[in-house]
Amino acid sequence: MKAKAVLILFLLMMTNTIFFTDSASSQGDASSPSLQRMEQGWEYQWVESVEADTGIPQTGWLPTENVKELDEPREDREILYLRNTFPDGGWIDPAIFISFMYGTFEVYQGDQLIYQFGNIPEADTVTYRGYNRRHFIELDPTVASDQITIRSYSNGNLIGVSGAVSAGSHSSYLTKMIRDDFDKIVIGAIQIFITVLALIFFIIKRFSVLYLAYAAMTFCAALYSFSITGSKQFIIDVPYVWIYVFQIAVFFRSAFDLMIIDKLFGPGYKKWVRRLWQIHLGLAVIAFTLSVTNPDYFTVTKGIFEKLSGFEVLLILAIVIRVFLRNTDAKIYAVGFLFMAGFMIRDLLVFTGVIYLKEFYLLGHIGQFALVLAIGIILVRQHRGAGDRLKIR
C-alpha cells in the first residue's frame, strides 16, 4: 500500500508542476511584443574604487554572456560598468526594466544620466538596497543615442544585476504588472484574514499551539505573496523593508510547517520533529537579527536556509508518504503540501534559469495558499469532530 501511496503522490506532484509550467510558458509565447529580454550583447568593465572612477570608459570593454549575477572575478572592486544597445522595438514610450539590482546604481543613455537609485558612494553597506525591487527607467526622447550604460556601486559582497533586464513599452509593462499582481494581492489579503481568524481560535481553544503555528504559517505565506509583487514599492518604497519582509516569509516558514506536522501527526514524529523546528526557529531569529544589524549577512544566511528548507521539505514529504493512508486529514494535508512543494520547485527552476520562460511569472504563492486551505479544512474538521463528541456526551 505504501508503494501505491508513493506513486500517487509522485504523479500528483509531477502533474501540477509540469502543467503550471506549461501554462505559464504558453502565456509567454502568446504575449505581445511589448517586452523584450536584453540577454545578448552585454559588455562589462571593473573600476577599482570610486576615487579611481573618471567617468564612462571609452575603451577596455569585455564581452559577457551572463549579465545576471556576473561571475567575472571582482577582487573587491567597488564600481562595475555594464553596457548594451537598446533594441529597436518601435515603442512609443520606450523604457528599461530591471527586476533586481545589487547596490546603488546609475543608468546612462549615451552620456546622459537618465536614472539614479541611491548615491555613489554611500557610507553604509548597500548590497541589498536595490534588491527585491523593480526599476522602471524611461528613455529620454531628446537623446539620440541608443547605448545604455549601467554604473553599479557596492561596498558589500555582491554587485551588479541580480534579475532580468528587459526593454519595452513603459505603459504596457506597468499595466501588465498590475494585472499580474492582482491574484497575489487578493491571496495575500485572504491569508491575512485567515491569520486573524486563527489567532481568535488560538484564544478560544485555550492557547492551542496548533492554531498559533497555523496563524504564523499563514502570515508568512501572506508576506510572501505581497513580497513577490512588482507594485509593492508603490505602497512602501523604503530600502530594505521588503528584504526583511521576504526574509521573515521564507526563513521562518518551514519552522511553522514542522510545528504543524508535530501537532497533527504525532506522537511518532514529535520528538525529533519538535527538536528540528525549535532549532530552525532559533536559527531564523539569529539570522534575522544579523541581517538587521548588517544586510550583507543576508547573503550567507540565505544560502544556509535554502539548504535547510530543502532538507525539511524532503523530510515532510517522507512523513506525508508515511501517513498518507492513515486517515482523511492526512490525505488532505498531502494534497496541499504537494501543490505547495511542486509550485515552489517550479519557481526555483524558473528563477535559476533551468526552465526558461519569455515572461517571468511566479506560482509559489498559489501553492502556499493551497496548503493554507488544506490545513484550514483539517482544523475545521477537527473542531466539528470535537463539537460532535461533546454533544454525544
UniProtKB/TrEMBL annotation:
It comes from the Bacteria. The lineage of its organism: Bacteria, Bacillati, Bacillota, Bacilli, Bacillales. This is 7TM-DISM domain-containing protein. Residues 1-20 form the signal peptide. The chain crosses the membrane at residues 185-204, 211-229, 241-260, 272-292, 304-325, 332-356, 362-380. Residues 185-379 form the 7TM-DISM receptor extracellular domain. The keyword Transmembrane applies. Keywords: Membrane, Signal, Transmembrane, Transmembrane helix. It comes from Alkalihalobacterium chitinilyticum. InterPro entries: 7TMR_DISM_rcpt_extracell_dom1 (IPR011623). Pfam families: 7TMR-DISM_7TM.
